[in-house]
């Protein structure tokens, strides 16, 4: 576990965790295809960690708030807090740290830990928030469990979701919650058939992304399977919410138009973020062709008269209290 250097002097660190200075190799970033990538466990995560990607991640955060009418969660977190049971929270794959900081501001009595492969988070954060550089696919070594674990847009980054969710379960307090938010990037559609008939370049992009995910073992098409995986990991009261996410400038209603605007901004920025490394490293596509695939997909996303949509999944589950029987029912 690599703690950020500005916190080293004030935070206790378990002796089982390896600690590095920010002057070490974790900030000796890799540069490829004109983008910057993480150096800690280099190559494991296909997306860049540069300014463009940070802006995209913050847009994704804004979209989540739009779907949830400003809330940071769907789980009964406020009830946990009011009963004194919200002491520790984990933001797994924290990215820019924006969710962790806002959650820490809302719940100042909760210790919030944000974890990522890249140390790109701000240094000025709420006093109850800290960030750590770590690989979530390694053994989890935290000494104390979490009352709430938040996970967002990690599809394509995790090789074994059953193992990952088992780790989440093992490190959640009885009665605590784990929540997933994922965008189903490979199941794109339109209600009127315009995407299916006019967006062949974007369909080709998605097919390559799907293929690369299968070859690396880090699939992008698992969103519909997450509720079942949560149950198999032992969680109960598994709840599912699905939101249709329009892409483009075509919706007429104000709220849908705002969601669609930010969605297409995120998707257009994400084309090269997701595609360049995977297409060149995994599929052997040349750089110019990879950029061409992304550019043609971008034109399809912005094409007038094409009403493209995808689905945003939100899945939450509770670890049973000690002695509580399992609950096989699932809502959603």
From TrEMBL:
Coiled coil residues, start to end: none
Gene Ontology terms for molecular function: methyltransferase activity
Pfam families, sorted: Methyltransf_23 (PF13489)
Superkingdom of the source species: Eukaryota
Keyword Metal-binding part of the UniProt annotation: no
Single GO biological process annotation from the record: methylation
Alphabetized CDD domains for the sequence: AdoMet_MTases
Keywords, in A-Z order: Methyltransferase, Transferase
PANTHER family associated with the record: ABC TRANSMEMBRANE TYPE-1 DOMAIN-CONTAINING PROTEIN-RELATED (PTHR43591:SF10), METHYLTRANSFERASE (PTHR43591)
Name this protein carries in UniProt: S-adenosyl-L-methionine-dependent methyltransferase
């Amino acid at each position: 576990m690599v703690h950020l250097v500005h916190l080293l002097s004030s935070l206790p660190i378990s002796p089982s965790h390896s600690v590095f200075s920010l002057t070490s190799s974790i900030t000796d970033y890799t540069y490829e295809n004109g983008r910057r990538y993480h150096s800690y466990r280099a190559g494991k995560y296909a997306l860049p960690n540069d300014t463009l990607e940070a802006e995209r991640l913050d847009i994704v955060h804004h979209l989540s708030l739009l779907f949830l009418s400003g809330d940071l969660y769907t789980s009964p977190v406020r009830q946990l807090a009011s009963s004194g049971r919200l002491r520790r929270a984990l933001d797994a794959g924290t990215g820019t740290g924006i969710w962790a900081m806002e959650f820490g501001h809302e719940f100042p009595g909760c210790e919030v830990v944000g974890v990522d492969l890249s140390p790109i988070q701000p240094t000025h954060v709420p006093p109850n928030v800290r960030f750590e550089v770590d690989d979530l696919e390694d053994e989890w070594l935290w000494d104390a469990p979490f009352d709430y674990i938040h996970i967002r847009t990690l599809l394509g980054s995790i090789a074994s979701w059953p193992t990952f969710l088992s780790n989440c379960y093992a490190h959640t307090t009885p009665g605590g919650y784990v929540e997933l938010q994922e965008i189903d990037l490979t199941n794109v559609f339109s209600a009127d058939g315009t995407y299916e008939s006019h967006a062949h370049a974007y369909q080709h992009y998605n097919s390559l992304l799907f293929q690369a995910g299968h070859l690396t073992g880090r699939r992008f098409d698992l969103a519909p399977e997450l509720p079942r995986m949560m149950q198999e990991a032992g969680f109960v009261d598994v709840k599912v919410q699905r939101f249709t996410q329009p892409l483009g400038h075509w919706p007429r209603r104000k709220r849908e138009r705002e969601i669609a605007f930010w969605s297409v901004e995120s998707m257009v920025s994400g084309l090269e973020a997701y595609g360049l490394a995977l297409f060149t490293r995994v599929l052997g596509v040349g750089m110019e062709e990879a950029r061409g695939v992304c550019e043609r997909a971008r034109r399809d996303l912005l094409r007038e008269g094409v009403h493209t949509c995808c689905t945003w999944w939100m899945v939450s589950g509770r670890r049973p209290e000690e002695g509580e029987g399992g609950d096989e029912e699932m809502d959603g």
